[in-house]
Amino acid sequence: xxxxxxxxxxxxxxxxxxxxxxxxxxxxxxxxxxxxxxxxxxxxxxxxxxxxxxxxxxxxxxxxxxxxxxxxxxxxxxxxxxxxxx
Length: 86
Hints:
Helix content: 25-40%
Distance between the termini: 32 Å
Strand content: over 45%
Structural class: alpha+beta
Order of helices and strands: EHEEEEH
Largest sheet: 5 strands, antiparallel
Oligomer: single chain
CATH superfamily: Molybdopterin cofactor biosynthesis MoaD-related, C-terminal domain
């Protein structure tokens, strides 16, 4: 098998996260799944409370693949996500 890494990002939409993953070489194969040549990313989103009255979208991405493939992919995705959200 390979490695499984789970990361959460706040302030971006699932739609935008999917677009970032496709820009990084993936293809959307299901509503919540993007696959690259040797990796898969499965996404979920939920509203999370920040303080007493603010809600943000938190997108969780589960990356699966070989460790040497995932580390640079996750780093590149995180850079894009942090610029967009937080």
